[in-house]
Fold this sequence. Notes:
alpha+beta
Amino acid sequence: MKAHFLFFSAFSALLFAPASLPTAQAAGMFGGGTTLDASYCKFNPPRQTVVYVDDTDVVKDRIDWVKSLLAKLQQTLMPGERTTVVELSPQHGQSKEIWSACWPNVSAAEAKKLTSESHFFSGNPLDSLKEQQGFFARDFGQAITKIYVSSQRAPAEVEIDPENPPKKSIIRSLASDGARYANAHGTIRSILYSDMAENSELGSVFKTPVPASLDLDSKLGTYLHRSIFYVFGAGSTVKDDGKVSDNIRKFWAIALQSMAANVGGFGSDLGIANVIPLHGATFEVTLKENSDELHGHLFLMMDTDGQLVDSWIGITRLRSAAINGSLRCSENTTQCTLNAKTNSPLVTDSTLETLSLKQNGSSSLFDNGGSMQGTLGVPGSNVNLPLSAKLVDEE
Length: 395
């Protein structure tokens, strides 16, 4: 109980809500009360965020990573975006969902609509936003506290000697949460706090050289489809000259690719841009190579300037990759151009490939049947393959 109090006191300055709140129930849709209102979930945006916490890396009195994480969430969550905290237990290869809720906010268009319909609700949702966001921060803090209280260890206890590393299966822990990805709507932004010091029968970052493949898809039967991973804390517990840190990055690039996950950021710090996406869309894609056709999906999510956020392309029988770039459209979105780079190769051995698509028609790209045509590969080379994309769903 004392540990819980110390942690929560240190964390309380970060919370918007008062330290002592009664436990009354929320007073209806967008109403008052002192609990987080679930009504914001009805906005159902095209992305959800899952925060994974490796419970073998929770160190007593070290909470700066929690502060950074909450600040990043507040700066990047979409209105109504579902946010879930999951505890990973790599010593047992298991995971456990701790808490889930939707970010209390509304877009400008939603705010205008809700204000005109405020008579349908017990109160104006705009009046309670700041308070509701405080409840979100409070409840998020309590979820992390629960993991902290049960898992905290002294700094020396988490330090890893590369010559005698502990058994640890982050891969199995992630795979145990695989059902989340099988049933995903839109895309999942997965934020993972871990040293990523995998050491199990599936593979080890402490062995050199790093294997060229891991075949985790066939070994586990688990795919982390429709996801983009942001890992921070990597290598933080390993005490060496940096060699293992290099292996960690190489190993996990292969491991996540084998599980069909896309990587948006990987390192000691949390590398997420402070951008709130505006909307998203999913396209079916067809890639042509000579007489063969390969199929897959393209997920695009853009900010107000058309810059891509947490976007990716996946081709069946090949692989998938996060993409960065922009989608520029005319005012009525009847002429759109996508210019993007992949952060890993799909069809060549090049470090970066270019995805270029254009749409030009009488109807909007985001209407039924909206489509684009172009190429994927390295411009000017002999591998720049025709690719077409057809709208499946505007998220």
